[in-house]
Amino acid sequence: MTEKIREIARRLLENGEVELVIGFEKGTIPLKSRPVFIEKPEEVEKLIWDGFCENNLATYLRRYRGRKVGIVAKGCDSRAIVNLIVEGQLNREDVYIIGVPCTGMYDRRKMIRDGKEEPSEDYLFLNCKTCPYPTPVLYDELAGEEVSPRDRDYSDVETIEKMSSDERWEWFQREFSRCIRCYACREACPMCFCEFCFVDENRPEWVEGGIHPSDLGFWNLGRAFHLAGRCVECGACERACPMELPLMVLNRKMVKDVKEIFDYEAGVSLDEKPVLGTFNPEDREDFIL
Amino acid sequence: MKRIEKNKFYEKLNGMIGEYRVFAPSGDRYRYIEDVSEIKFDGLLTKMSPKAHFLPQEEELFRWDEKENIKVKDVNDRYIVFGMRPCEVRAVTLLDPTFDTEKFPDPYYINRRKNTIIISIACNEPLETCFCTSFGYGPFTKGDADLMLVDMGDYFLGEGDEDILNLFGFTDSEEDYRELKEKAESRIGRIEIEGIPEKLEQIRETDFFKKITQRCITCGTCTFLCPTCYCFDIQDRNRLNGGKRVRVWDSCMFKIYTHETSGHNPRYEEHRRMRQRVMHKFAYYPSLYNQYGCVGCGRCVTYCPVNFDIREVIREAGGYNG
Amino acid sequence: MEKEFDPKIVAFLCNWCSYAGADLAGVSRLQYPPNPEVIRVPCSGRVNPFYILRAIYEGIDGVWVSGCHPGDCHYQTGNYYARRRFYLIKNLLEFAGIDRERLNFSWVSASEAGKFAETAKKVTERVKKAGPIDKLVKERYLND
Predict the structure, then answer these.
(1) Which residues of A touch C112 (CB under 8 A)?
(2) What's the structural domain count of chain A?
(3) Are both B180 and B200 inside the same structural domain?
(4) End residue of a domain, out of A111, A142, A173
(5) B244–C139 CB contact, under 8 Å
(6) ipTM for the assembly
(7) CB atoms A183 and B219 under 8 Å
(8) In this complex, do B306 and A55 lie within 8 Å of one another by their Cβ atoms?
(9) What's the longest Cα–Cα distance across chain C?
(10) Distance from CA of A287 to the nearest CA of B (A)
(11) Rg (CA), chain C
């Protein structure tokens, strides 16, 4: 796959079809591949593909708006690109998508903790283990054979749903009070592109800038809600979080509900309107008193 | 050299909780502990550095009541910070010239600093991301610590203030830690920082910073975990019976950090923010205080979501020819 | 004797229906509890879901949003959009452990004075059952 990616990137750069190719290169710490920005054909040898390409590269695309950019995209990255196009943040013509069928990414932090060096199924990220779109949904060229989708499984969310409200609150407090408000989740997320985030608003102020558990709760719930119906389940937020908060559980709860209630999935079709930007008169309303 | 059995040391430390507030490693960060059983070393370095004691993430400066009587918060408690690593001790030394200035002395920082006994532990087994020896000190440097311990398995060797050694009941010993020290130092990677401040000044207007910033997502992980980053924001908190003014951590990597009231933002572009961070540590700090603003703990390297590696950037800067 | 819990409830009422419904309930002299404190909004679609989050953050015991029946929106479609958002914010808050009784949504038209009074009673009862809020509430008073 690495060879194929390099070959495509070289061709695109040589022919001047794109100014830049965003892909992955080998990182400087163990088990880490990191984003790289290739501008010259002779640099394509840097590009690699392995089980540690955990970032979502679509998050960089808005910086290059109006310029022709090639991007190495796995399934979730491509869904993010679709969503960015649907939400009017990108022009389809500006991106050349090198689709990479993805067999899942491995949790490097867990592996290092367990002293493992070889990836195995046990160390796949949860959202990769249950990935419904491992093959990109939108691409200009595919760099490998299609990968069959995995079964959706929201048992992590269901476990928490089954708890009493006090138990859920206890769980939420325990996990999310570790937050340090560095906003790595927000910056890593391709869908968090607000010019001015709600936590930064100060006239009036939505939420205080401190680390009282209520502030942390507000921020994390607010973030999850802003991604409701938009989250493409790439897991970039959780992978970026230095404190390893289970951010994806909140996101997955929203993804699951959006699917169940409105039968919608984010980032799979260029023709569908965003779920909260449209409605159906027959929408479920069993929560109304 | 002086020595003490570990269990005896911890017993003594436990007895001091109450008289002192003890700030110690407890998993991913340092916490004020009630009992020594809460001390938990999570690898060599905690994720969050102990700067959270000297410069808390959220700290009250003063408060007012309904009648607008103002009460300034004073720091009277006595503290022990236990388990700091030599790099973290050095980081505190680096904070001093910023907060303890003649013109604007910061009473909150100074009082905390004055009332704190620092007990550090030398690093027998440095990490792959450590590069402290590049800055003229090492994993066995006592620095500004009041007491430095060396972990010898069942016991600690101690070096430091005579009063504190006696307080804990250290006894004389023939041993020294030279061998451990040499072994540890030989394991640490170095970066070449000779001439870097001048070089960075030379290339500040080139494309160098644009190039290195491409990968950065401009989150605040590096600055929040960094033991020497001290940027803060002052905010007011209105309460039903008054209010308070607090100081909270801020980060030069955030877009809003330099957002001005007019709407103008001199560091709107990512590379301008990155330039600030890199130059602050490797150019401005040396020119102001004759010391680098980085201690080489490697936290920013380990926890960066996109593996932005400051060691590599300094290396590249050294060899950059426009 | 212990005082009975008197909950604070914020009611976001649509100007064109529920707000008028409250008015009619008043002139018709229907009895209903005084706990819901009304904030008049131009449409239930104007209620940013963050208002609900913010009300809880500020220590409000319960929130009640009431708009026009589906199809009757003064602006044609505002409540349809709102309905989707409310469903999700309610589920998310519940998921984080906020009691469901604190989150109330209803459709009450301008002529339904009786339904307004009934719903006000029901909402107050529900919030009373949940008790004083202690989750997600910011520090409201200065303390040591």
Answers:
(1) none
(2) 2
(3) no
(4) A142
(5) no
(6) 0.94
(7) yes
(8) yes
(9) 52
(10) 34
(11) 15
